[in-house]
Amino acid sequence: MKDVVFPQIDRLMADLDGLAGLVDSSRPGWSRVAMTEVDTHSRYWVADRMRAEGLEVRVDGIGNVIGTLRGRGNHRKAIVVGSHTDTVDGGGRYDGIVGVVGALEVVRMIRESGIVLEHDLRVVDFYNEEANRFELSCLGSRAMAGALTSKHLATQDDHGRTLGATLEAAGWDPQLAGTRWADDEVLGFLELHIEQGPILERQGLPLGVVTSICGISRFRAMFTGQRDHAGTTPMTSRHDAGCAAAGVVLAVEEIATSAESAVGTVGSVTFTPEATSVVTESALLTAEFRSPDDAWFTLAREQIAEATAKHAEKRGLEHSVQWLPWERPTAMDDHVSSVISSSVGQLGHPAAHLYSGAGHDGVQMAKLGPVGMIFIPSAGGRSHCPEEFTDPAQIAVGVHALAQSVVNLDQE
Ligand code: HGY
Ligand code: MN
Ligand code: MN
Ligand code: MN
């Protein structure tokens, strides 16, 4: 298998720094949250960068940016590389972004190696990979896989606005025109991503081959009690929705902590009214569980049902729990992962095989074809924060592994 030249770090970092400049400067860290103006603008910036590399570019109805390098063969199936450029609020410069700018560098490296691919190579910047305020993530890849349904689009945020209306307001098409890919057009999807955890750094390894991606299940719990005077209402006759929500916050922590390999996080608790002189009338809590174990989620749901009922009944409250679309744990494809492992070896690197506690577009792309992922180290295991960092030399090693894997998959 032909060796691919090493990436040019300066031009790779020029693209990464270019995106780091397209953020909402009124927010902490590097914020480019999906469905905001700065995100929409940055998608057309990425499209221009793809055109500059000679790719045929289209932006689909939901904002996926797809650049194609034509292969010489007449194959129906394409190789897909890419990731996402949207961030969490107050996020970092590398989560997702490394996989998009790295994929652009792969196009340049393949050309500079004098290699003409057999298969088309599609470089993709997936729309809205991060969990949005509708508690939904991976909207772009979900739409490609035909898994973004009218039910999802009807999901409302805390102000009663639907996801569909919000997408339309951000300049996208709630009918999702041109987003759906056929079930037989992906030879393999390969994503380069930062680990967002401590394992590679602790083991002093430059690369990881991902074995599986976590399942994620998010829910909203709503408690309704009674607004009363905070000074004159005895503790024994209150219907305080806030205290019930606080009980479920700790229940999420307890349920996840008591499980073998699960994590649980409460994202927000909203009290109404927000006043210390009024007993809280209603409380809305949003939370998520993650685990590699499909079956465990059923137990977690039962435990949440018990906890919400217990805290509600104790205070004479009404309550409800709404489970949002579940992303199931997803194993990476054995063959694509073996191509990645052998490519990593061909470049003379060791690699760990590790589970991803972070969600990725690969969960949706696995509905369209075989998926493999390459991890590079995260400093201190930190991510989803301004401290997120990966050394450019480490990014270059990851991009080299991605490029070699693409060529080896293509030449099979
Ligand atoms: O939330 C996640 O796991 C990913 O970073 N989107
Ligand atoms: Mn083929
Ligand atoms: Mn990511
Ligand atoms: Mn993320």
From TrEMBL:
Superkingdom of source: Bacteria
Annotated protein name in UniProt: M20 family metallo-hydrolase
Required cofactor names: Mn(2+)
Keywords: Hydrolase, Manganese, Metal-binding
Family of the protein in this entry: Belongs to the peptidase M20 family.
Subunit annotation: Homodimer.
SUPFAM superfamilies: Bacterial exopeptidase dimerisation domain, Zn-dependent exopeptidases
